[in-house]
Design a protein that fits this description.
The protein is mostly helical. The protein is built from 14 helices and no strands. The longest helix has 27 residues.
């Protein structure tokens, strides 16, 4: 029974991955597909708002769990379909659930394979995660250039507990999700014209600098603890 429980996250992820590629869902995560389906998707949300919201969270969670490229498209589409506030909430829920599923899979029989994928990046993150997992995960979530999948895998592979990982993930992805959802809330005319949203906004100084400041702030407790360990109590 314990062996089956360890393999369950792996089985679920492989099943979702196979279904996603068999149904061609990975090809739907593009700006062209979103623009072509915008009217029908918005009508579906208007007709069945609760069901549409649950479906959105489920699709997002599945995409994150199997690391299908296109999470940004899903986040932006959340703002387009549900508005900035609700789109942010749903995106955080979907990304959080998917991250937890991949985290659990990394602690199962899939661990050695995922460790190979993480490669030398895992070795760079290991010391900080082993010392102060919550603060480091929170900081990494706030830095938009750090691969999302890597921050899902690395904590699990170094033995971090699920609860602090999940909490740091949920808190850390809120700012980025809010930025992309706000972009989505105003891109209807861009998609109608066949254009592509400018996602460089996440790297613009007015957005990036506050995120980096929050990341630095989240590391202050860990840095203070290290300083005290080296120099003694003050």
């Amino acid at each position: 029974m314990n062996q089956v429980r360890r393999l369950l996250p792996l089985i679920v992820i492989l099943a979702v991955l196979a279904l996603a590629y068999a149904m061609g869902w990975h090809q739907a995560l593009s700006w062209e597909a979103l623009g072509a389906r915008r009217a029908s998707l918005q009508q579906a949300v208007a007709d069945q708002p609760v069901l549409a919201a649950l479906a959105y969270v489920g699709i997002y969670a599945a995409a994150v769990a199997v690391s299908i490229p296109g999470a940004v498209v899903i986040t932006v589409s959340g703002g387009l379909l549900f508005g900035t506030v609700l789109g942010t909430v749903l995106a955080v829920a979907g990304a959080g659930i998917g991250a937890v599923l991949l985290f659990l899979a990394a602690r199962s029989a899939l661990g050695p394979l995922l460790a190979t994928r993480a490669g030398p990046l895992l070795d760079r993150l290991r010391p900080g995660l082993e010392r102060d997992g919550f603060n480091y995960v929170l900081a990494l979530r706030l830095i938009p250039v750090v691969p999302f999948w890597l921050v899902n895998l690395a904590p699990a592979l170094v033995g971090m507990r699920l609860a602090p990982f999940a909490l740091a993930t949920l808190i850390g992805i809120i700012p980025g999700a809010a930025v992309f959802a706000s972009v989505g809330a105003g891109i209807g005319h861009v998609l109608d014209a066949g254009g592509t949203p400018d996602l460089g906004i996440i790297l613009a100084p007015p957005v990036l600098l506050p995120l980096l400041a929050l990341a630095a702030l989240s590391l202050m407790p860990a840095l203070w603890k290290r300083w005290k360990d080296r120099h003694g109590s003050v």
